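Lay summary

Proteins are chains of building blocks that fold into shapes. Our project writes down both the chain and a compact code for its shape. Here are two examples, one after the other.
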Amino acid sequence: MTKDITRLKRSLEGDVLDSAFDRGRYATDASIYQMMPLAVITPRSARDIKTTIEFAQARKLSVLPRGAGTSQNGQTVNKALVLDNSVYFNRLLDLDVANMRCSVEPGMVLDTLNRLLKPHGLWFPVDVSTSSRATIGGMVGNNSAGGRSIRYGIMRDNVGAIDAILSTGRTARFGLLNEGSAGLESLLPDLLALGQDNSGEIEARFPKVLRRVGGYNLDALLPDTLAKRPGSTAQEDDINLSHLLVGSEGTLAYSAAIELKLSPLPAPKIMALCHFASFYAAMDAAQYLVALDPITVELIDQTMISLARSIPLFKSTVDDYIRNTPEAVLVVEFAEEDWANNLAKIDQLQAVMAQLSDAQAGKPRQKIRPEEAVVVITPPDQQARISEMRKSGLNIMMSMKSEAKPVSFVEDCAVPLQDLADYTQGLKDIFEKYGTSGTWYAHASVGCLHVRPVLNMKLSADVQKMKSIATEAFELVKKYGGSHSGEHGDGLSRSEFNPVMFGPQLTAAFRKLKALFDPAGVFNPGKIVDAPDMDTRALFRFAPGYHVADFPTQLNWSAWPGAADGFQGAVEMCNNNGACRKRDGGVMCPSFRVTGAEKDSTRGRANSLRLAMSGQLGAKALASPEMADTMKLCVSCKACKHECPTGVDMAAMKIETSVLYRAENGLSRRDRLIAYLPDYAPIAAALAPLFNLRDKLPGLAWLSQILTGFSANRPLPLWQRRWFQSTELAVTPIGERPVLLFVDTFSRYFEPENLRSAQRVLTAAGFTPFAPLPDQRSRKPLCCGRTHLSVGNVARARDTAQRLVEAYAPYAAAGIPIVGLEPSCLLALKDEIPALLNTQDAQQVAKMVLTFEELLLTEKTALRLKPLQAKALLHGHCHQKAFGVMRPVQEVLGMIEGLEVETIETSCCGMAGAFGYGAETFDISMQMAEARLLPAIRGADAQTYVIADGTSCRSQIKDGAAREAVHVARLLDQQLIKD
């Protein structure tokens, strides 16, 4: 096989990845399953795909198309050659604005497509919750839907045609029958006969609900007038063969180019949060709210609200908009062309809610106060906060830190709206029968609820419960004439039940359809037809024998269960939802945004960690060069801790692997220069002219790169002879409002004027800054230990951090604020140091830490500033964003009258401490900066101020855009009114 794979590599334009680490990163999706692929191909062209299919056909191998890999039921895992379309095969091929059509390659991401369409007044309206990473090809394979399907239909209703590659390697056109079907001529008679021969069973067996995505779409072989689906938006009566491929989960053919039907951008919407005192009342109300013709009605249940309150990203959203403690909230949206009609709809909604609050026969009475029953939200940015929380519903549910998690296998069953309340009550009864409970959210408007019973998939007893619950739940769905798969497809967890839902005749028809297109079983076998049992534990992510051995860890992981003091549980929090694969908005994940490689996503790293910890990647995999390479492009931005809905903290996890790697391999010369910088800084500063020659004398930079690994393409920071001395500040608190100023190494030796400006600003604001001296064990200045931590030199980092905490703890206990200028160092006091030391003193110090801007806002009236008629571009440090302290920066700058501030929406600047100085990471660093930051700064005029609090950020801006950025403290100092 190795020789064959080598031969395949030579014949493709794209990449072939076949190491254990690479294959392991594609062995899972967002389901409970794991299947190790044979190899991973990232095709660059349809020719690459055709070549791979022919290669597989000749060797009796399987092929699996894959987009974002976020399938809930195991559709995108198999022992196959995985073709990842998302990396290169992702172009917009054609756009016909007049006819509202476009064609795309399957790897095109939905949000990316909609950004390209927006300037033309168009969008693709199948708005799935994973839109930031979902690919069009994956959505076709899954027959995806989204929150607005009651207005726009599902994927099937919005696909016009597909150019596909068959299992023989030939191409074929799947589209309207009356427009021709090139490449399908020989199959067409059998296809049409298959539809006609089973028309009676299709009519009798196919659920009469919009959300039916189970099985194959055999009704597509019949004119729509014969088998019209409830709620469908389709207009044509002709047979459209592309609908056979929609929802086929990559089992029939390979979609190489997909023609989509577009829609005009929706009118501005208005949102209302309808609060209910009981879950049943909310489910019963859905049918009446849908009668008002909203574009969506989405459920948020009490469990999701409670969990969201514990997640930093969503806590403020819950606090701002959810009233008291409802059992359920229905998010209702209207988007009428005339805004007055939106307001009229809200009036109607409030009237309906008032009626529903009265007692209904046999239904629980509402106990929500009328004035709190409906919360109306009109500003788009505020609506976006609710939408983001709702779209993250699955991941919020998965944020439980226990071994048991909400498990997907009955979650998206769809029933008629009038039966929704009774169906959900019946499902609750089934859960109670098996000693568990469920989490609930999603699409109340179409009777499709994402419900997940909480089970531990490592326990055989819970696996048996899963099978029993599935069997009884699907019988309940049949009772109400619903669909056992309403949105997330069949995969490994549902395909087993297709014979139960569709009967023997249609099951045989499904097999015949598969055999017509793929007689050799090349495409994603074992899905939809001839599937293994859903409880085949050998296919589980946590298969029998899964075990993680204990090993010593450096940080505090006690909040999670499992081996290695909870590190196992923290790693297993990654459920493969793929939020880290987004390309726009927020910060996570900077390296993935540049490379597009699964290896460089937070998810890819977490999967590698889990497999390595459990021995599935060989002995000592955690300390291996392959693991170091997996972590190499992680810039420790901390965005994942804030933006990952399950809170995967890869920056902290990288520390653990760095320690293990250094224990095996030692510190490199560059590692030592980084780690021990605070130790030799006084000498370097005293000899600044000598040390600064590196970037002045020809050839020294290149020699430096050879000797140290620091890139010759970037100048090193300049040492300052007039560095900041401890004597410039008081060493003990004085005055009525003392504040402890944390003097970090970088500000002290490279940019001392920032500290002097901060001292003047704090004094002007009425504070008296001081900085305690270190203890008598060492006269070296206090340091947080970040430089040691960044290279895995944890023992020294712990000692350094302990010295600082010992010095600061008495003042923290006295309630004195601790403030600093460099975000990465200051916020280490709130994050890494408490996890590293795990002491009460460290926790107390963390509680008293404020950023420079946060402190000023506590007494902002005391600061007198001159007006400044100017513009400013503001770039936030990653750690400022991760800890949610960018708003104080914006508010402080707002204190300067006349200053117009624009925040650049950026991910990481790319510098990330020493990352941007590395010879092997310099190019990636610059690509991160070029994504948004540097173009925005180059586009500003020379009079525009550039503001950045991070030392690294200012260096990147200077190196990449030849502009001087300033710390907020410097700008405030400049504008101080001095008496």
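And here is the second example, written the same way.
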Amino acid sequence: MASMQPMTAGGNGRDGGDGRDGGDTATAPGRAVPARTPVDWPATLTTARLTLRPVERADVPYAVRLWTDPRVRRYLGGPVPADVVRVRERHCAGVPGAFAAVRHEDGAVLGLVVAEADGHDGRTEVSYQFLPEHWGRGYAREAVAAVAAWARGAVRSPVPGVAAVTQRANRRSRRLLDALGAVPADDFAAWGEPQVLYVFPATGPAGPAEPAGLTGPTGPAEPGPGR
């Protein structure tokens, strides 16, 4: 879907994710996080089928798969180089705004969703990436809807609102954003590819994937190790 930076993946084509329903789009670990994060953190969200919780060390193997799988990285310039992966492995756990999507029924980690302050146009930017075996089942839509709704009040950005960026060629990602009620607001070129900025409705993502429950922050926000 939207663009994911180092930690997750998005659909804009930068180093992040492809943002498709089962793809990725997110901004994540890789850069240092300021001592005072603009994200109310930690937080845990609950939907009908998923728990979205802070990324843990045990989630690193799943993250590595997302960073190196050619299908996930299709709109992100290809698999992340091994030396970059090693750096990300050390810094991805606990990043403010980065959620692991965990299935209720079996505890499986399906993917990552990230909400980051001050995105492409100053709005909060949501991105995500899901493992290919879980594509096409609505998990990405359910998770992105919950995180986008949470981010509206929990992430402080210079420009009000929540957005996502995806490559124009990423049709699956664009269909997902359309289904959530996000609307195209800008076209631009970046990383050598045409991009589309989508803005979510002010009252929350449309569709059946509204969060069923929400807890957070669960304690004082701690400086993240990096995103």
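What can we say about the second shape? DSSP finds four helices and nine strands in the chain.
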